[in-house]
Amino acid sequence: MNIAISNQKGGAGKTTTTLNVAGALNQLGNDVLVIDLDPQGHLTEGLGFEELYDDRDRDALIDTLADLDRISRGDGTDLIVEHQEMDAIPSHERMINAEDELANEMKREQRLGMLLEGVANGYDFVLIDCPPNLGVLTDNAIIATGNVLIPAQAKTTSIRAIELLFKQLRSIETAFDDVQELALVANEVEVDGEAEEMMAWFRDVFEDKDRCAVFEIRKRVALQRAWNAGVSIFEHSEDCDMEGEYLAVAKHLEGFTDE
C-alpha cells in the first residue's frame, strides 16, 4: 500500500509522522519503504543519512524523476538505502530545483507513480513524506498513491491549510483518480482549550469520511530525541506512551490492505 503524508503547512509534523508510523508498521512485521520527497530533507536527516543529502556524486531521486527514459527502463532501485527499521529513498540538495525541472516536462505529475512501479514491489507499505507545499512534487505523491495520511497541529491555523489540501485533492480527482483520506494525525497536542476545540473539529470533519480516523499524538520530548538518534520511537532507548497511538495508526492502515 502506497501512502502520501501531506499537509502544505509547515510544522504540521509530516516527518515525525512518517518516521514513527513507518516504525510502527515495521513493529507489526511489515516491510516498509519511505521516500523523502521534501527538498529540505528532514526525513533524510531524521534517518541519519545527512551525508547522502550533501553527496554531490550520488544519483538523487530528482535525477531519475527528470529522466523519463530512465523511469521507463525501471531504474530506481539504486536509490534505495537500508536503515535498521525500514528502507529509504533519501532526499538530496538538488531536489530544491525539482519544481522547476519538472514544470514543463511530459507526464510531470505521474513520474513518481511510474517510478514506484519499479521500486515498490516487495514492500508492504511505501510512505512518502511530501514537501510543505502543493506543487508538482506533492501532486506526484498523491497521484502515485491515491491515499493520503494528513498530519496537523491542533491549532486553529490548521483549518485553512486542511481546506486548501481538500481543494487540491478534489482537483486531482477531477484530472486523475479518486483519492482516499485515510486518517488525520494531530501532532504535539497540548492540554488547552484551543487543542480541545481543534480535536473536536478534526473529528467532525474527518470521522464523517469513509473509514477515516483521527489520532492524537501528545507532545513528548522522547519523540524529538528519537529523531535526533536517527530512529523511530520504537527503536529509541526511552519508553514513550505515544508508541501505542502510532501502533493504532499502523493497525488502522493495515485494515485497508485487507480489502
TrEMBL record:
SUPFAM superfamilies: P-loop containing nucleoside triphosphate hydrolases. Residues 3-175 form the AAA domain. It holds the Pfam family AAA_31. Gene3D superfamilies: P-loop containing nucleotide triphosphate hydrolases. It comes from the Archaea. PANTHER family: COBYRINIC ACID AC-DIAMIDE SYNTHASE (PTHR13696:SF99), P-LOOP CONTAINING NUCLEOSIDE TRIPHOSPHATE HYDROLASE (PTHR13696). This is ParA family protein. It comes from Natrinema soli.
